[in-house]
Amino acid sequence: AHPVTLSVQLHPYGDGRRLMLSRDVTALEQAEAMRRDFVANVSHEIRTPLTVLVGFVETLQTLPLQEDERARYLGLMAQQAARMQHLVQDLLTLSRLEGSPPPGMAEWVPVCALLRHCEDEARALSATLARTPAQQHRFVFPTPGQAQAAGQVAGIAAELQSALANLVNNAVRYTPAGGSITVAWEPLADGGARFTVRDTGPGLAPEHLPRITERFYRVDRSRSRDTGGTGLGLAIVKHVVQRHGAALEISSVLGQGSVFGVRFPAARVRAQAGVSPAARS
Ligand code: ADP
Asked: Which GO terms of the cellular component aspect does the record hold (predicted)?
């Protein structure tokens, strides 16, 4: 049984009798606790880079520094500023998503464009994170022909693009050097389709899975920060996916890797005209 919070009010009548009103405010109280947590988290996430930034400014103001040292400090300051910028961008994205109505059938977005965007971003990110070419990830993406045959999905292109790319980027960020990442788009028997990203990263323990899409929930704090994470990525993905009537599916085996999938319902998927279902498989 879950604890329940009741708000009880006693209204006296003039004749000594009282009317007792009780209201279940459990949901209200939970919402308020979540709001408090969120504000505390945001403040903490901003305070850390800000403290570093203020420290560097003071150093630059007070210490006579060599040119190369100055340049190094400025570089570190730029990193902290970028971190805050990403956080603010993600916060604005979240609040915009929370405040706007679902996109309906908006437009038909070619799946091949979504896949190409994911591939470009993931390869660039892998190249940035790897210190040597040998450390880059091995990628398997649908071939151009397969991507073309995948057809179209209904929704807001920019939202779908950033959500799917976010899942692929996470696979890159959490999978150690040299690991492999496989991206697929498969038609489903019910007429829908599923986008999947499979990685050979650290995987997630079962107890983390239900919480992984909560804002600021992180399993590996330092890996998240080192690779530019804000802790809001999956919360944004989940919003976009739900707004599009799709479902986010996560399965993972600790020590072996994870699979992040987005399942689109039949109503949102349109096969490529002129491509027979047989050619699509
Ligand atoms: P972050 O900015 O921290 O990456 P996300 O919301 O994108 O925030 O992800 C939340 C947490 O989920 C991450 O901090 C990480 O611990 C975990 N995570 C996400 N994707 C993966 C993955 N592919 N493999 C392992 N852990 C992951």
From this structure: plasma membrane
Helix (H, G, I), strand (E, B) or coil at 270: strand
Tell me the whole-structure pTM to 2 decimals. Answer: 0.87
Phi/psi of residue 227, each to 5°? -105, 20
Tens-place pLDDT, residues 5-14? 888 888 888 8
Ligand 1: which atom is nearest the Cα of residue 215?
A: 6
Give me ligand 1 centre to Cα 256, in Å.
Answer: 15
User: Distance, CA 252 to ligand 1 centroid (Å)?
Assistant: 12
Closest CA to 262 of 236, 232, 237: 237
What does the DSSP 8-state code read for residue 10? E
Nearest CA to ligand 1 atom 8: 231
Residues with CB under 6 A from ligand 1: 170-171, 174, 199, 201-202, 204, 212, 217-220, 224, 229-235, 258
Q: What is the pLDDT of residues 87-117, one digit of tens each?
A: 999 999 999 999 888 888 889 999 999 999 9
Residue 212 alpha carbon to ligand 1 centre in Å: 7
Size (the chain), residues: 281
SS3 state of residue 185? strand
Q: How far is the CA of 109 from the centre of ligand 1 (A)?
A: 27
Alpha helices in the chain (DSSP H): 26-62, 67-99, 111-129, 144-149, 157-174, 221-226, 233-243, 277-280
